[in-house]
Design a protein that fits this description.
The protein is mainly α. The protein has 14 helices and no strands. InterPro entries: Cdc37, Cdc37_C, Cdc37_Hsp90-bd, Cdc37_Hsp90-bd_sf, Cdc37_N_dom.
Length: 350
């Protein structure tokens, strides 16, 4: 007898009629479908990562068992190998439990049109906002193209970055369709980093929001295989009436983006400081190529006090108290770093 119970738990979208009359029903169904597809992708990624971890653990367990058996034959210490075997065995059991949970989770997932339909049910839309074929450019050509784009559209790029309302952003991009591209997202990323480096965090966060809007438009165009310019209206309509899950995804990405910007700005500041310090260090190197600051820090305390007070007599007395080889070693470093510049006579005397 056929078990029809499995057909009771099926997610549907195209035949639902519970939408509000003011909501664009086809778009709502499409967004629900996209959310399902994204969830399925996440599950596939989780399965792939799990299988990789499981295979690695199996291989390590097998390798460790061979080592353990060989160590038993050789009569060597088994404590470390025994501990590794126990840990790997515990992990194997945990992985098996996790695999069972994943199978149950997959079994309980509702069926939908993406998992039960055949290719014959697919729909083909011909020549509706298809993306332009991109000519492959070299890195140098890309850089030149990007610089030219920034120069040509900088005024409008900054104007878009300062907009606050979704409707205004939508209208502006529809009036300036050339801005709907990767170069705009790149410009806004660079602008955000510079703003954060200038400690203009509030303004950076505002521009970051506009940057994520652009990135979501580009991602939507890739998902639908359409020209990004034809996705402007769809994205802004979608974000304004978004369900909780889609809105959360947008906010999470925005938060993560701002954190990346702050981290990158900090790295660039630290790199600039390091570069400036290195340049300063190079400029102060003595005739022998040594850094006077580093040499001073390496001196015995008695010699440090002499250089701090610039007392030559005290320096001569301090040197006389040190073993000859040690005194020569330290004074040579002082000369090579420029801490001590003897005249000709004193040089011969030293």
């Amino acid at each position: 007898m056929v078990d029809y119970s499995k057909w009771k738990n099926i997610e549907i979208s195209d035949d639902e009629d519970d939408t509000h009359p003011n909501v664009d029903t086809p778009s709502l169904f499409k967004w629900r479908h996209e959310a399902r597809v994204e969830k399925m992708k996440e599950m596939e990624q989780e399965k792939a990562m799990f299988l990789k971890e499981k295979n690695e653990n199996t291989a390590k367990l097998k390798e460790t068992k061979i080592k353990y058996e060989q160590a038993q034959k050789d009569g060597t210490d088994l404590s470390d190998l025994k501990k590794q075997l126990e840990e790997l065995e515990v992990k194997r059991i945990a992985l098996e439990d996790h695999e069972e949970q994943m199978k149950k989770k997959e079994k309980l997932m509702p069926w939908n049109v993406d998992t039960i339909s055949q290719p014959g049910f697919s729909k083909t839309v011909v020549n509706v906002g298809q993306p332009k074929k991109q000519v492959e450019l070299t890195d140098e050509e890309k850089e030149i193209k990007t610089r030219e784009f920034f120069k040509k559209h900088e005024k409008n790029l900054k104007a878009y970055g300062m907009l606050q309302k979704y409707d205004d952003s939508k209208r502006f991009l529809q009036e300036n369709p050339d801005l709907v591209c990767e170069e705009t997202a790149n410009y806004l990323v660079i602008w955000c980093i510079n703003l954060e480096m200038e400690e203009k965090t509030s303004l950076m966060e505002h521009v970051a929001h506009q940057c994520i809007c652009m990135q979501f438009i580009l991602e939507l165009s890739r998902h639908l295989n359409r020209d990004p310019r034809s996705c402007v209206s769809s994205f802004f309509s979608k974000i304004q009436i978004a369900d909780v899950e889609y809105r959360k995804g947008f906010e999470d990405e925005l938060k993560a983006f701002k954190e990346r910007i702050q981290r990158r700005a900090k790295e660039k500041i630290e790199a600039a400081v390091t570069e400036a310090e290195e340049e300063e260090r190079k400029n102060r190197l003595g005739p022998g190529g040594l850094d006077p600051v580093e040499v001073f820090e390496s001196l015995p305390q008695v010699l440090k006090e002499c250089f701090e007070t610039q007392n030559i007599e005290l320096l001569q007395q301090a040197i006389s108290t040190l073993p000859e080889e040690e005194a020569r070693y330290h004074m040579k470093k002082c000369v090579d770093s420029g801490l001590w510049v003897p005249d000709a006579n004193s040089g011969k005397k030293e």
